[in-house]
Structure prediction request, 646 residues.
Amino acid sequence: MKHDKVKILDCTIRDGGLVNNWDFSVDFVKQLYKSLSEAGVEYMEIGYKNSPKLLKGADAGPWRFLDEGFLRDVIPQKSATKLSALVDIGRVDENDILPRKESLLDLIRVACYIQDVGKGLELVEKFHKMGYETSLNIMALSHVMENDLNEAFQEIKDSPVDVVYIVDSYGSLHLNDIDYLVSKFQRALPEKELGMHMHNNMQLAFANTIVGLEKGVTFLDASVYGMGRAAGNCNTELLVSYLKNPKYEIRPLLEAIENLMIPLREKVEWGYIIPYTVTGILNEHPRTAMALRNSEDKDRFVEFYDKLTSPESNYATKNHHSD
Amino acid sequence: MKHDKVKILDCTIRDGGLVNNWDFSVDFVKQLYKSLSEAGVEYMEIGYKNSPKLLKGADAGPWRFLDEGFLRDVIPQKSATKLSALVDIGRVDENDILPRKESLLDLIRVACYIQDVGKGLELVEKFHKMGYETSLNIMALSHVMENDLNEAFQEIKDSPVDVVYIVDSYGSLHLNDIDYLVSKFQRALPEKELGMHMHNNMQLAFANTIVGLEKGVTFLDASVYGMGRAAGNCNTELLVSYLKNPKYEIRPLLEAIENLMIPLREKVEWGYIIPYTVTGILNEHPRTAMALRNSEDKDRFVEFYDKLTSPESNYATKNHHSD
Prediction:
């Protein structure tokens, strides 16, 4: 069957947690896991495996600092849907992580910027030795110079990492950029599976994911109703509808949207919101737009655009967060 | 310059009128015309040129039954942005239409289903003789059989029509469908310019438009903030941001969104709304979803999906409206 190697990785809880500070109830996450399982989604990324010791924000919900004991209460019975967690360079304490056979997690994904690929691969190697499936998620690829990427490929080639992700952190990549990047990654890393994590600032997250998928990318990130930081991600329900594989069902996802996401979307926002469109178009981190949306000026789009595009602007700042 | 033959046709008032029953104030339309002019948009579709005598709905706003005298009050001074109007087969009284040199309109577009292409071309010929630029907009192409389309091409070839539009009325076409259809239209109608009018049910309106554009389609429909029936259209602001032509400016569009579209969106809805996604995925007219959204059950997505997919369903009905 066409696309039969494709795996959908739903990152609603992990990337969506960036919207609501991981304030999902246990019941919400249980219901979502059930829906994703029924829908045939292969992976659920249930949070971050960062260490509270290494990161401010201890007020965040438990999905930011996943604990194995807690996880066993949430998911007492695993379905065919595997579990994954994301870690950030410098924020994970490797001693927190059990060997895979003692863990509910199947896949550990390491997010890093291009300059930290070496550190990322060190972590990958440790998790690989502990028995996990691993991925390296290279963030902010729209800001990466070709020569740096080529150097990174050399390191990645020699690593045991299973999947290498193209991450469009700023939601600024177009269809032709994806076509170009996927071809480049495929030529450089023929032995690795590839993944895609897109953001929806320009309403291209789903379309870009299709472009990658049709070129042979096998790990596709998505989130239910698109929930994810700022403009959000590729929508899981759209991806399931596109893949003709009979193992997928959209109905459980519609149920999750109706029961979980619509009420949540009334409290917190993500999606096609103009300041995020602007940062996407300008190929910038969405943090300035997130700050705007948290202010009284949230709908003052023109002033925001003028600030970001003024030659005197020092509004844009450095990278910090994963994805 | 790449894409220098491309024309953006903004149909906010015409297609958006299907959302709010054409209840735009004169001031709203004046401001929008100014913004589109400053943005460098080539055409503004300012409404329908249907006849109130031939159509129920005389309570609709004036943009449904454009009158030349009225139009002169609204646009006393034309900019470089041309004006267009849409007509439906059987709803237009040709005697209502002045010769182009006495009219503010530049382009008249005829919308029809495949079985009415003959009638559509009769109208096109009359408008052509009156001096107008013309287009034939073939709706609901996702429901058209190949042999019917091939017959239509024979008629279109011999017509003076300037532009032939691919219309994705149900928002159900994917990137590969667009690739296929555009190639087919290009082979069959090498002398005609092609246009695209996409709907956003699956968040593909912009992406599909890009696919067409990159293959050589020159007339691109869009609407500001995506306003259009049901899920809406390709967003004018995204299209302007994509085209690198220096004549386009996004700032006036951000202004229009801030001042006009955000307040309007609080009163009426369009965009990524799950029942429209469902009809798009099922390749059906959105009318059942529109009815749902006007009912108390507006967020009962699963029940709606079950009704539409039940083998006993006679929920789906025939085509009626343009686009």
